[in-house]
Amino acid sequence: MAEVQTVTGTIDSSELGRTLVHEHIFVLSEEMRQNYDTAWDDEEKIADAVAKLNDLKDAGIDTIFDPTVVGLGRYIPRVQRVAEQTDLNIVAATGLYTFTDLPHQFEHRGPGLLVDEPEPLVKLFVRDLEEGIADTGVKAAFLKCAIESPGLTEGVERTMRAVGQASAQTGAPITVHTNPRTGSGLVAQRVLKEEGADLGKVIIGHSGDSTDLDYLSQIAENGSFLGMDRFGIDAYLPTEPRVDTIVELVRRGYADRITLAHDAACYIDYFTQEEKAQIQPNWHFRHISDDVIPMLLDKGVTEDDIDTMLVKNPRRYFE
């Protein structure tokens, strides 16, 4: 058992239930929104998010982990208004989302830099975890960083090492956005381990974009969870090979290292709602419940395996 911070308060890990470990409520650029989106209606967006999350709850999901951090438009007051109107548990994150550089506020601050001080990112992440995010009263429950095709740039490495240090200091688990085509999940494991993070409390996100069973098995053998978390984003990999990969991983004995999600959002400003529905018609919160789980069961994955991936593994992430 462990305490888990949600947007509406603390729950026991046993109360997480069926959990999707990588979903977003709002992904947007607040600067672009405030300066250029003249049609934005906060009430409308909140109502739409509430309806989508209540529908997800009706589909049998009890909790989502929302890794929307700085760089993806995290704004907790808006998320709080959504959380107040749904029985779905929403678990918030801290961290920084960058594929290359740090925000300019950190360019000259840090060990050996113009303002020579301990890594300031660590202080911010720990504050979000232990004291709360801004003045919202909401505490982050896990950490998030990213490593993409540019690799371990200076900004990415500083962020990742700060996330590792904050995890080692607080015990908070970690989710990493990775690009499996570059093998970056293994790079993330190496760096986080060097900073004292427990790889058993790390989800290597977007592992589901890969069918490379040797790569995926190595990540699992190193102790981390495989984030099979982009169901519905067929542009990266269609559903059937994603399912077949999980079936084989389960056959190899890795069910206790697999987590599931869509990496979907109630609202994302990369596309209009119409474009999203046309380009990626399966990219919605019900795809796993309605389509993926029946496919897994048809291919021989057991109900107990599903329970392990959706319930037991998210609990173990915190416990």
From TrEMBL:
Keywords: Hydrolase, Metal-binding
Cross-referenced Pfam families: PTE
GO molecular function, one term: hydrolase activity, acting on ester bonds
Cofactor note: Binds 2 divalent metal cations per subunit.
InterPro entries: AryldialkylPase_Zn-BS, Metal_Hydrolase, Phosphotriesterase
Cofactor(s) needed by this chain: a divalent metal cation
Entry keyword Hydrolase: yes
Assigned protein family: Belongs to the metallo-dependent hydrolases superfamily. Phosphotriesterase family.
PANTHER family in the cross-refs: PHOSPHOTRIESTERASE-RELATED, PHOSPHOTRIESTERASE-RELATED PROTEIN
Identification of the protein by name: Phosphotriesterase-related protein
Species per Swiss-Prot/TrEMBL record: Brevibacterium iodinum ATCC 49514
Taxonomic lineage of the native organism: Bacteria, Bacillati, Actinomycetota, Actinomycetes, Micrococcales
